[in-house]
Amino acid sequence: MRAGHQGTGPGAITPDGCAVELYSRLPVGEEPDIIAGAVPAGAHILELGSGVGRMTHPLLERGFTVTAVDESPDMLERVRGARTICSPIEKLDLGERFDAVLLASFLVHTGDEEVRRALLRTCVRHLAGGGCVVIQREGEDYHTNVPRERIGSTGFTLRIASSEPVGDGTNSVRAEYEFPDATWTQTFRARPLTQEEFEAALGEVGLGVDEYLTEDRIWVRAVAVEGA
Q1: Which of 72, 172, 194, 227 has the most CB atoms around its CB within 10 Å?
Q2: Domain of 99: which CATH number?
Q3: What is the count of structural domains for the chain?
């Protein structure tokens, strides 16, 4: 298990504390529509951190070609209809370029700043000329509005139970998922980033914000900056 990460509950648990069976149960929200509206029709998308294919499958249904990357073979076993690659994102180098690169699941908030830079460099390394990177950020109150909970569309309860500073600008977050027949927890490290800090992190690797795709600025389209 990765340092500072832990998961509990039935089934396989990935190194960052994600439960494979849990992610197979989570419903699909509006995210695929946001992504589809941000990238060219029929684009070939490199999805970094695909998990079980919760975004992959709706994107395939919308006519996109998807290459799904995840470090967990247990996750990738659930993906259907897409080319899959088992690899840590930060080490990925396919020697290929894509119309769009997707970095969702708040991965840009990883607690390790060097890993964050490596994740973003992977995005740039695989980006075709004129392409874009679609990134999902944490909400601005992600670490302050705790504890909080919501009822999912299929009746489960998602609870962010705590977010506690652990030094070096990172927080330890505990999430709980309660279904009628099972409960999962995940504890992970995350680095809060203000909008300015996020944009500076993009700038470090030669990216810049093209557009905030949602009013809450959680979803972002970034592009390569000329001369960077």
Answers
A1: 72
A2: 3.40.50.150
A3: 1
Half-sphere exposure of 182 (CA within 13 A, CB side): 12
- Strand locations in the chain (E): 6-8, 44-48, 65-70, 83-86, 98-103, 127-136, 148-151, 157-167, 170-179, 182-190, 207-212, 219-224
Query: Is the confidence at residue 3, as pLDDT, over 70?
Result: yes
Asked, for residue 103, whether it belongs to a domain, the answer is yes
Looking at the DSSP bridge assignments, the partners of residue 45 are 66, 100
Residue 4 lies in a domain: no
Pairing state between β 127-136 and 98-103? parallel
Residue 78 domain flag: yes
Q: Are strands 182-190 and 6-8 parallel, antiparallel or unpaired?
A: antiparallel
pLDDT digits (tens, 9 = 90+) for 75-111: 999 999 999 999 999 999 999 999 999 999 999 999 9
Asked, for residue 66, whether it belongs to a domain, the answer is yes
